[in-house]
Amino acid sequence: MDFLKLNGLACELSPISIGGIDVYKGFLSISDQKLLVEELRKVAVAAPVFSPKTKAGRPMSVRLTAAGNFGWYSDHAGYRYVERHPSGCAWPEIPNLILSIWQALVPDSPKPECCLLNFYGEGARMGLHQDRDEARFEWPVVSISLGDEGLFRVGGLERGGKTASIWLQSGDVAVMGGAARLNYHGIDRIKFGSSTLLKDGGRLNVTLRVVT
Ligand code: SIN
Ligand code: MN
């Protein structure tokens, strides 16, 4: 069994706060990141990535898949968690290495039920949104960045308010919890090719969520 070294623990867990969201820069060492990519590849083989459609019917530029009891899906009927991949199969289990990051950062929260994988190829972005498809908002969302840098924008609880931005790099981990749990956030753009972690470039973001 492989273990992560979790650099961030060695630097005594001092996050940067960006709009109330805690960003742990360099939390994962390169060897941690490589181990995670191997595990996440297995998830994507069992549950291939797909492009969900927005409510307006446009395909999202981000491709996604999931592990855990729930994945996330969207179409004209709206945004929701679903118990099966579009192929009809159950989602694969959340890799233990991923669970160990949740355990290290938010040990008092129940186990995550969804590990959502967002893949950003060249030109992909994610508009400002709130994570509010979960039944309750008392548990944090933990977000792991791998591969190319992504410009993360964080606002407040209202659309259209002041925002702040930070480049998330491979190995950074963010925790959206407490008063910032429902803050608007999104990825304006990625720097395609800025990391060599993923063979064909791009950015992989993993978010862990308690759904029910
Ligand atoms: C998300 O909000 O689901 C993804 C955020 C990110 O890609 O960093
Ligand atoms: Mn989100």
Which terms summarize this structure?
single chain; 212 residues; alpha+beta; Jelly Rolls; seven-stranded antiparallel beta sheet; four-stranded antiparallel beta sheet; 3 helices; 32% strand; binds succinic acid; binds manganese (II) ion
Layout of SSEs?
Elements: H1 7-10, E1 16-18, E2 21-24, H2 30-46, E3 63-68, E4 71-75, E5 78-82, H3 96-105, E6 114-120, E7 126-129, E8 141-147, E9 150-154, E10 164-168, E11 173-176, E12 185-190, E13 203-209
Antiparallel strand pairs: 1-2, 2-11, 3-6, 4-5, 6-13, 7-12, 8-11, 8-13, 9-10, 9-12
The structure holds succinic acid (SIN) and manganese (II) ion.
The site of succinic acid (SIN) has 10 residues, from strand 9, strand 12 and strand 13.
Description:
The strands form 3 sheets. Strands 1-2-11-8-13-6-3 form a 7-stranded antiparallel sheet, covered by helices on one side. It has 212 residues and is an alpha+beta fold. It contains 3 helices and 13 strands; from the N terminus they run αββαβββαββββββββ. The chain has a single domain (3-209), classed as Jelly Rolls (Sandwich). Strand 4 and strand 5 (78-82) form a beta hairpin. The chain is 15% helix and 32% strand. It has helices at 7-10, 30-46, 96-105; strands at residues 16-18, 21-24, 63-68, 71-75, 78-82, 114-120, 126-129, 141-147, 150-154, 164-168, 173-176, 185-190, 203-209. The mean pLDDT is 94. It binds succinic acid and manganese (II) ion.
